Amino acid sequence: MYQQAPSDPPKSLATGFPVTYNSTTTTYSSSTTDTSYAPPPPPQPKPIVQWSTGLCDCCSDRANCCITCWCPCVTFGRVTEIVDKGSTSCGASGALYTLICCVIGCACLYSCFYRSKMRRQYGLKGNACTDCLLHCCCEYCVLCQEYRELQNRGFDMIIGWHGNVEQRSRGVAMTAAATAAPSVEQGMTR
């Protein structure tokens, strides 16, 4: 039988734990006294908050209510662009919403997933079952509520995600320039 020589360290799997090798014997042990590594604590869950407006508060934004009533794909596209943080365009989402509506007649099956995604992002009250039921029973009111929620969180829904990012970055640059002391030109001196 082959026995490893003490000069040859053992070939072990990389586990992330330090291993000590004792050259006088062939025993190997893991070091558990090293306390320099501590795993990061898990992230704290976001507190659950109420929606900023009710489901039937459409009277507060009549323009969006009319757009949603006649063309819900526009409202849905604007909401998805903000919820997806610009990775999906308003036009593409609206077109897909319209296509699903034309093919199977029930675009609410697609739009309810975005409500769930929005709830997770902002820690809003609700669950997946109520999201689906709300979208199936009163699609237009739910789309208006999602639109208003994003507006109340400071998004300009018409300019989309990239427009909001640009506007906020410009706003930071403008406030930094506004707080800086103005430069004074020196007059001619002799």
Automatic annotation (TrEMBL):
Pfam families on file: PLAC8
Species per Swiss-Prot/TrEMBL record: Cajanus cajan
PANTHER family: DUF614 FAMILY PROTEIN-RELATED (PTHR15907)
Protein name, UniProt field: Uncharacterized protein At1g14870 family
InterPro entries, A to Z: PLAC_motif_containing (IPR006461)
